[in-house]
């Protein structure tokens, strides 16, 4: 199962009540095409990172996702 399918499945399980709350999802991919990022966000990912990435990049992305989820 790829990342897009995984994100879709997690969001479906949330809607069905199998998960309590929202699972934060950050897709990590080597694909740099903008349409790939857009698709990931459209299926429910909260963030998108392109490989290779640094620890600081990951920490920044996590902080951003947490901040956005707290505002919802």
Report the helical percentage. 55-70%
The strand order across the widest sheet is 1-2
Question: For this entry, what is the oligomeric state of its chains?
Answer: single chain
| Mean pLDDT metric | 93
Order of helices and strands: HEHEH
Supply the number of helical segments.
3
Structure description:
- The chain is mostly helical and 72 residues long.
- The chain has one domain (3-71): Rossmann fold (3-Layer(aba) Sandwich).
- 56% of the residues lie in helices and 11% in strands.
- The protein contains three helices and two strands; from the N terminus they run αβαβα.
- Strands 1-2 form a two-stranded parallel sheet.
- The longest helix has 17 residues, at 55-71.
- The radius of gyration is 12 Å and the shape is globular.
- The protein starts with a helix and ends with a helix.
- The relative contact order is 0.18.
- The mean pLDDT is 93.
């Amino acid at each position: 199962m790829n990342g897009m399918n995984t994100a879709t499945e997690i969001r479906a399980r949330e809607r069905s009540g199998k998960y309590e709350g929202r699972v934060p999802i950050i897709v990590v991919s080597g694909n740099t095409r903008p349409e790939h990022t857009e698709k990931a966000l459209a299926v429910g990912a909260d963030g998108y990172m392109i490989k290779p990435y640094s620890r600081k990049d990951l920490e920044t992305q996590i902080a951003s996702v947490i901040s956005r989820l707290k505002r919802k």
